[in-house]
Design a protein that fits this description.
mainly alpha; 3-stranded antiparallel beta sheet; globular
Length: 82
């Protein structure tokens, strides 16, 4: 099982600013990729770090930049298929 990290740790590990992470949150699925207990602080599955850092799938397809959410599980399934 992956570790759970907060948004500051995600920012540190991924190199993205916290504001940018908030803008990219629509690429993730609540309850699977990130968590918001009691409508408070955000927590992320640590696999999100790789998802944000790579910027594209191993097969060369780009991760959608805006408007087209992709589930983190789909991202890893495509990686394993290559």
């Amino acid at each position: 099982m992956s570790a759970i990290i907060d948004i500051k740790e995600l920012s540190k590990r991924s190199g993205y600013k916290i504001n940018t992470i908030y803008k990219k949150i629509n690429l993730l699925e609540l309850g699977i990729d990130y968590f918001k207990p009691n409508k408070g602080k955000l927590f992320f599955d640590e696999r999100v770090v790789d998802f944000l850092k790579k910027g594209e799938h191993k097969n060369g397809e780009s991760i959608p930049k805006k408007g087209q959410p992709i589930h983190l599980g789909d991202f890893f399934a495509q990686e394993q298929a290559v």
